[in-house]
Amino acid sequence: MIQRLSHTSILVLDQDQAYEFYVNKLGFEVRTDSKMEGFRWLTVGPKAQPELEIILMPIAVGPHMDEGTCNQLRELVMKGKLPGGVFDTADCQKTYEELKAKGVEFLTPPTDRFYGKEAVMKDPFGNWFSVTEHKP
Amino acid sequence: MTRRHPSLVDHETFVRLSRSRDFLAACFDRQLRLDDAARQAYLSKYHYQRLFQRAFGESPHEFLTRRRIDRARDLLASSDLTVSEICLEVGYSSLGSFSARFHQRVGCPPSEFRSRLRGIYAIPWPGMHHFLPNCFLRFYGVDPVAPNTATFEKRV
């Protein structure tokens, strides 16, 4: 039986920019950074979840992806049609202020919801994420 | 039915614990005491140990061991250093302790890990011991057994 999720992926347009965002701005750890044959396997994760790997997947032409498909995916990402996920925080307001100071773009500021407080941010490519402080 | 979200460590404490964790990650190859790490977080040893476990799901000692063994795996895969040299390089002073910890975490002794890797891959390359799912590699047209070139960086 499947027991847990070990890897998930986020489509990115540039892995160097993705590294700058997820590692240097969001504070994620690098789990693996391996380059071969012009391909880079780059995974990161939050410090509080050492077993989880988020694959920063480049949209690139290859045996299973032609140029037309790549263009379609790039457009969808840039339009923000591919939600990234939900990140947990102990303090939405402080996290919002810290990340804004680092240049992270938010679609909505911290807002009270029935489940807690939530802000919505996006990465440099268009993927958007909920940043949620849950009610106890 | 979803379960309740686990309670998180408060923001300020998490920032301090993260700083101390970064300190451990940067100094993993040295002889460290729990006091040194706790001081980075401005916490007593007892509270530091408890809060670190709660925030990161592992104790400071477990984190340090994991970092050291991960680095040892990198060196066994990508260098010609002897097992004894690697033991010292990653911060262990006793070869026996290092080998036992390595075996416990990896499932085999350091020398066997090295010879297994080199028996699998046609061309040894630094990142070969990390989990790179073949399905993803083939998706991008990379031969997982014998990539043409490889450079590996594992930033801590």
Distance between the termini of chain A: 31 Å
- The total strand number of chain B stands at 1
Largest sheet of chain B, described in full? none
CATH class of the largest domain in chain B: Mainly Alpha
Radius of gyration of chain A equals 16 Å
Q: What CATH first level of chain A would be assigned?
A: Alpha Beta
Strand tally of chain A is 8
Overall, the morphology of chain B is globular
Structural class of chain B: mainly alpha
Structural class of chain A: alpha/beta
**Sheet bearing the most strands of chain A, described?**
4 strands, mixed
Strand order, main sheet of chain A: write it out: 1-4-3-2
Q: Using CB atoms under 8 Å apart, which protein chain pair has the greatest interface?
A: A-B, 32 and 40 residues
Report the CATH topology name of the largest domain in chain B: Arc Repressor Mutant, subunit A
For the termini of chain B, the CA-CA separation is 37 Å
Supply the key terms:
heterodimer; A: 136 residues; alpha/beta; 2,3-Dihydroxybiphenyl 1,2-Dioxygenase, domain 1; 8 strands; 24% helix; 40% strand; B: mainly alpha; Arc Repressor Mutant, subunit A; 2 domains; 8 helices; globular
Task: State the gist of this model.
The complex is a heterodimer of chains A (136) and B (156). Chain A is built from 3 helices and 8 strands. With 136 residues, chain A is an alpha/beta fold.
Task: Provide an overview of this structure.
The complex is a heterodimer of chains A (136) and B (156). With 136 residues, chain A is an alpha/beta fold. Chain A is 24% helix and 40% strand. Chain A contains 3 helices and 8 strands; from the N terminus they run E-H-E-E-E-H-E-H-E-E-E. In chain A, the strands form 2 sheets. Chain A has a 4-stranded mixed beta sheet, covered by helices on one side. Chain A has a 4-stranded mixed beta sheet with strand order 5-8-7-6. Chain A is globular, with a radius of gyration of 16 Å. Chain B has 156 residues and is mainly α. Chain B folds into 2 domains: 9-57; 62-156, Arc Repressor Mutant, subunit A, CATH 1.10.10. Helix content of chain B is 58%, strand content 3%. In chain B, helix 1 packs across helix 2 (34-40), helix 2 crosses helix 3 (45-56) and helix 4 (60-78) crosses helix 6. Strand 2 (29-36) of chain A pairs antiparallel with strand 1 of chain B.
